[in-house]
Write a structure and sequence with these properties.
The chain has 7 helices and 5 strands; from the N terminus they run ααβαβααβαββα. By secondary structure, the chain is an alpha/beta fold. Strands 2-1-3-4-5 form a 5-stranded parallel sheet. The longest helix is centred in the C-terminal third of the chain and has 25 residues, at 168-192. It starts with a helix and ends in a 5-residue tail after the last helix.
């Protein structure tokens, strides 16, 4: 009798999330990222978010939690997913190449002290790498979310979350779990005056 593939998927996700939940170094990085975002928002800066495919959707999801709300009624905070403006994306792709779709927007919208949150499960997407380099040059704080194959992003990220998996859907699930924890911490810090550890 074959195993239920749906149950197998849930079990694989659960195993990866348990591994992440027990990884003290990973939890410390998530906490550091939360503090980085809290400090930026407190200083009047913003969070810019980028990603491709499912990670683009995750970038939009995270931005909406920051701008709208996660759990608490509170003022909106400044976050922009650079994945949503089809006119900008297509014009930049047409005029400068797909590798520049986010870097050009960062050049236009980014300011020193802003945070760039770049999601890339592989850590090798040329447009993500170009964006992180552009952000560094402009004085943004660079934050990466990736998987086990993307550890080379350490070279261009001030903070890097490495999900303990090389399976794209599982990496994305860990990224969103971490993002929700960060959003929760941001709200508690900015509304109640103290972050959660």
């Amino acid at each position: 009798m074959s195993q239920n593939p749906i149950a197998t998927h849930f079990q694989q996700s659960l195993t990866a999330l348990q591994r992440a939940a027990n990884d003290t170094a990973l939890l410390a990085v998530v906490s550091d990222i939360a503090v980085t975002i809290i400090d930026a928002l407190r200083s009047g800066n913003k969070v810019l978010l980028i990603g491709n495919g499912g990670s683009a959707a995750d970038a939009q999801h995270i931005a909406s939690e920051i701008v709208g709300r996660y759990r608490k009624e509170r003022p909106g905070y400044a976050a922009i997913a650079l994945t949503t403006d089809t006119s900008a994306l297509t014009a930049i792709s047409n005029d400068y190449g797909f590798e520049q779709i986010f870097a050009r927007q960062i050049e236009s919208l980014g300011r020193p002290g802003d945070v760039l949150l770049a999601l890339s499960t592989s850590g090798r997407s040329p447009n993500i790498l170009a964006s992180l380099s552009a952000a560094r040059q402009l004085g943004l704080v660079t934050v990466g979310f990736t998987g086990l194959k993307g550890q080379s992003l350490h070279e261009i990220c001030d903070r890097l979350l490495v999900a303990p998996s090389d399976d794209t859907p599982v990496i994305q699930q860990i990224h969103m779990t971490a993002a929700h924890a960060i959003c929760d911490n941001v709200e508690h810090a900015l509304v109640d005056g103290a972050g959660r550890k």
